[in-house]
Amino acid sequence: MCYLRCSSYSYGKVCKAVSGYYGCDKCNQRGSWDGRITYPETNNLAMRTDQSFRECWQPEHHQEEEISPFSVLPIDMIKSFPIDYMHQSCLGVMKKLLLLWTRGRTDFRISSGDVTRVSGRLETLKKSIPDCFARKPRSLQEIDRWKATEFRQFAIYTGKIVLKGILQEQLYEHFLSKKKNFSPPNLERHHRQIDFLRTVNHPKIRYLCLRSGGSLGDGIRRMLKKIGDNSLWEYYSYKGRKGKLKFQQLLINDVIIRACSKAYPNQKSQSVEDMIAVTLKHAPDREKTVNQVRSQREEQPSE
Ligand SMILES: [Zn+2]
Fold it and tell me: Looking at the record's lineage, which domain of life comes first (predicted)?
């Protein structure tokens, strides 16, 4: 699906582009005009579903008298199409933040001297950027000509270094907390999990049983850790509540229940499910602790 980015994205789905009033892929709110189309509502949204898309519940979202060539496939027409990373994260969030910090309201803006300092740091980093990157960092003076890949590099790699000590503490912390959302590693983890689950066979269950030990809770934590880390699990809840992804319908759920029935023969499968639910619920807290330890470690001066 990777080539279904940018404008070809809406071509592929034969629906309105994100610049249209009914262009949001995920919900059916009507956009409003504020110099550009925005979708300001974040609460109580009616989300699009495979059924609502296929049956054209909102005709304004679709191109007239045409159907998507993908609709013949047995796929979910909403969930199978990823959010456009280039426009939303790189040219969207990261660019917005940088413009806010360099040209925005005075309470968020850094001084022009500091803009020059950040630019200088970016220039200095040039020689340390390996060839696997499409571009070397450029100064902020050229930000209007930055490509998406440069915003991505800033978001994931260089921003953290060049902004340190310059951006207000609170804004810097906010940037760091959002930084991981830019990272493709989250997707890699998903793929690793999918690979693991592609074949559920006896050795895999035995493998998970070997991860068990101690109490049921310890066993489940260890099994989940073997497949993904807390930054993955914080996106899931057992029944998919509070807008999270549904763990219950993952194949790994059955695998864990089966592994537990071998490792903990006295536990009912209901208790296993309850324990998975609790473990997922606390994943965000564990992730926070890991990040705190990490940042404390980074703050310690290196000799
Ligand atoms: Zn929406």
Answer: Eukaryota
**How far is residue 245's CA from residue 237's CA, in Å, rounded to a whole number?**
6
Decide: 175 and 157 in contact? Cβ < 8 Å.
no
CA of 185 to the centre of ligand 1 (A): 25
Interval between CA 148 and ligand 1 midpoint (Å): 22
Neighbours of ion ligand 1 (CB under 5 A): 24, 26-27, 39
Kindly list the distances between the CA atom of residue 207 and the CA atoms of 116, 119, 210, 211, in Å, as whole numbers in the listed order: 54, 50, 5, 7
pLDDT higher than threshold 60 for residue 300? no
Residue 90 and residue 102: Cα distance in Å, rounded?
A: 17
* Inter-residue contact 22 to 30 (CB < 8 Å): yes
User: Which two tokens mark 7?
Assistant: 């404008």
Q: How far is the CA of 45 from the centre of ligand 1 (A)?
A: 8
- For 210-268, the pLDDT digits (tens) are 777 788 898 898 888 877 778 778 888 898 887 777 888 777 788 888 888 888 888 88
- What Rg do the C-alpha atoms of the chain give, in angstroms? 23
* CA 41 to each of CA 45, 92, 192: distance values in angstroms, whole numbers, following the listed order: 7, 17, 34
C-alpha to C-alpha distance for 40 and 32, rounded to whole angstroms: 8
Residue 110 has pLDDT above 70, yes or no: yes
**To which residue do tokens 């490792």 refer?**
263
d(CA 19, CA 131): 35
Rounded to the nearest angstrom, the distance between the alpha carbon of 233 and the centre of ligand 1 is: 24
Q: Where are the domains of the chain?
A: 6-72, 85-182, 185-284
Alpha-carbon gap, residue 16 to 86, rounded angstroms: 18
